[in-house]
């Protein structure tokens, strides 16, 4: 694992990790389900770039593969599926954020600072503390998103962005084995969550509306 | 010799700013029109407008005080003074030792407050509305700007813009990520300060969407010409400021070789042109924002500024 450990490559890695974090704030700022899904897709694309860059820096082709998997799965497949589900199940398009955007943003900044302070003493040689801080911050912001949004689809996107934080942490560790497998596992978990919400919503529909309406819904979507 | 050079630099810089400012505003307006499928006025139209307005006699309200008459001049002078401090194509102008970012922010705030006071002066409803909105935006934009300045000061070890631009030009500054956060915060402040979309619409015809247009509504003739010139100069100043800090390559210093000096002006022009195109593209693409949501956006800029400054302080303290 020789790699190109220049200050510049580390800087770019931080910049990409930071862009993932900023897009987490973008997710918190969104107030439409469509915008939320698009912001998540953008975050996943930047995450894929971060993984690929780490692959180049650490001379680990496996991480480039991870980046491609993240790009295809979280960057394209999951957002497309979410858009289609949102259209078919006619979710409420407005995303409510419970205590208002600004207090949530302030709480988000506090969480990022918490992550930075938590990561500082844990400056292990395995994971540089800036990378650890950024990944932890993305995970914490994902949890914040799930707390402040009552609607199920918005909570789901929060959970997905939490998983993005995990992948960001995984790819940041030099010489991490099973990085590809872990990323795939995380993506499978994400896909299962999407499918779970989809099935639950279908069942909820069955209970509250008659099957004829469901058929009309299905017909309208095709 | 160096004093002479720095004075000559300042003179060229100011002459370029004053002549280019309306042209740049025209370029942004023309590009935006083309992107929206309209023909667009020629890029020299703002210059012609200024000449036309400068020939006209101003019409004043009966109860207008000296403040109303003096405000355009004060705002223009403050903006010009700030523009003299921002390095354009070359570092080391005669004003470089004075070019403190806090002073520049202060001069811009002076111009802003003077125009807001003038909006209140005649007691018209629309002017008061504009002044109220301008000040409520400023209440968020100024702290965000201060936090950006603190971040840059942590990076470069000085609040002097010339020193900051020099440090960033050498690439000796620290991590990129806090700088990126500072850039986002500064872009939000610049958009609010210049009254660009999605926050404001300079060509607004409906009072509900007006901020800067409402402040200038009671003005006419050469007063209006000065206000328009101030707005154009302020836009150029902000683009130059962003270029100096975040696109620091290609600027000449007194120690640079002849080639760098020859290239410095075209490079500066390219940077400004690129930023102007980006601005037009952005403005053509976004929808106007509700006035009540603007503080949210600027509050976000404040938070990003806090994040940038604290992250940098923590990481530098630990390094």
Entry keywords:
A: mainly alpha; 8 helices; 0% strand; B: 319 residues; mainly alpha; 11 helices; 72% helix; globular
What report would you give on this structure?
The complex is a heterodimer of chains A (222) and B (319). Chain A is built from 8 helices and no strands. In chain A, helix 3 (61-89) runs parallel beside helix 7. Chain A is mostly helical. Helix content of chain A is 80%, strand content 0%. Chain B is mainly alpha-helical and 319 residues long. Chain B has one domain. In chain B, 72% of the residues lie in helices and 0% in strands. Chain B has 11 helices and no strands. Chain B has helices at 2-35, 45-55, 66-85, 101-121, 125-156, 161-170, 176-193, 212-215, 221-246, 258-285, 294-318. In chain B, helix 5 packs across helix 6 and helix 9 crosses helix 10 (258-285). The radius of gyration of chain B is 20 Å and the shape is globular. The model of chain B has no long low-confidence stretch (mean pLDDT 88). The chains are: A mainly alpha (222), B mainly alpha (319). The A-B interface holds A 11-12, 14-15, 17-19, 22, 25, 29, 101-102, 105-106, 108-109, 112-113, 116-117, 120, 123, 129-130 and B 175-177, 180-181, 184, 295-296, 299-300, 303-304, 306-307, 310-311, 314-315, 318.
Summarize the structure.
The complex is a heterodimer of chains A (222) and B (319). Chain A has 222 residues and is mainly α. Chain A has helices at 7-29, 33-57, 61-89, 101-119, 129-148, 152-172, 179-208, 211-221.
The largest β sheet of chain B comes out as: none
Which structural class do you get from the secondary structure elements of chain B?
A: mainly alpha
Tell me the number of strands of chain B.
0
Overall mean pLDDT score of chain B?
Answer: 88
Largest sheet of chain A: none
User: Which blocks of ≥5 consecutive residues of chain B have pLDDT under 50?
Assistant: none
Q: What percent of residues of chain B are in strands?
A: under 5%
- Cα gyration radius of chain A (Å): 19 Å
**Structural class, judged by helices and strands of chain A?**
mainly alpha
Largest interface: A-B, 24 and 19 residues
